[in-house]
Amino acid sequence: MECTKCDQPAVMHAAYSGTHLCETHFRESVERRVRKRVREDDLLPASATPADPVTWVIGLSGGKDSTVLAQILAETFESDPRVELVALSIHEGIEEYRDESLEAARELVADLDVEHVTVEYEAEYGVRMDEVAAEDPLGMAPCAYCGVFRRDVLSKYADDLDADILLTGHNLDDEAETALMNVLEGDVSQMAKHFDASLGPFPERQAEPAFVPRAKPLRDVPEKEVALYAHLFDVPSHIAECPHAEESFRGEIQDLLLSLEDAHPGTRHSILAGYEELAKMAAERYRGEKTPELVSCSTCGAPTTGDRCRKCQLLDAVGTE
Ligand code: SF4
Ligand code: ZN
Question: 290 alpha carbon to ligand 1 midpoint, in Å?
Answer without folding.
Answer: 29
